[in-house]
Design a protein that fits this description.
Layout (H helix, E strand, L loop, with lengths): L5 E3 L1 E4 L4 E6 L9 E7 L6 E6 L5 E3 L7 E6 L4 E6 L8 E8 L5 E3 L3 E6 L1
Parallel strand pairs: 2-11
Antiparallel strand pairs: 1-3, 3-8, 4-5, 4-9, 5-6, 7-8, 9-10, 9-11
Length: 116
């Protein structure tokens, strides 16, 4: 399956901000599930932000209040705005797009590194 292209990320000092985006090959519309996952060194992949098919946003406690998931429907773009970054946020970040019929896409992954 083809991975969704992602942009952004990079390296920043603690307290800084970064944005990661991905573009979906499918039109983003109602009843789709969108999410951001990350996998840090030696850790399992975890879901950190999601937008359910019913329009409900959820965030992991570790990022709540600092990260924001948004959608640019006109450009089929999923965005993760990350503020007040911490060294423990260092990870590979991947977007996820689940369609109502069960097809899904993963992003290619983007490295985010936060230095102290």
């Amino acid at each position: 399956q083809v991975a969704l292209p992602q942009f952004g990320g990079g390296s920043v000092q603690a307290g800084g901000s970064l944005t990661v985006s991905c573009w979906s090959y499918e039109t983003i519309s109602d009843f789709h599930t969108l999410a951001w996952y990350r996998q840090g060194p030696g850790n399992e992949r975890e879901r950190i932000a999601s937008l359910s098919s019913y329009g409900t946003r959820n965030y992991a406690d570790s990022v709540k209040g600092r990260f924001t998931l948004s959608v640019d429907n006109a450009r089929n773009r999923l965005i993760l705005q990350m503020n007040n970054l911490k060294p423990e946020d260092t990870a590979v970040y991947s977007c996820y797009h689940l369609l109502p019929g069960g097809n899904y896409y993963w992003g290619q992954g983007t490295q985010v590194t936060v230095t102290s």
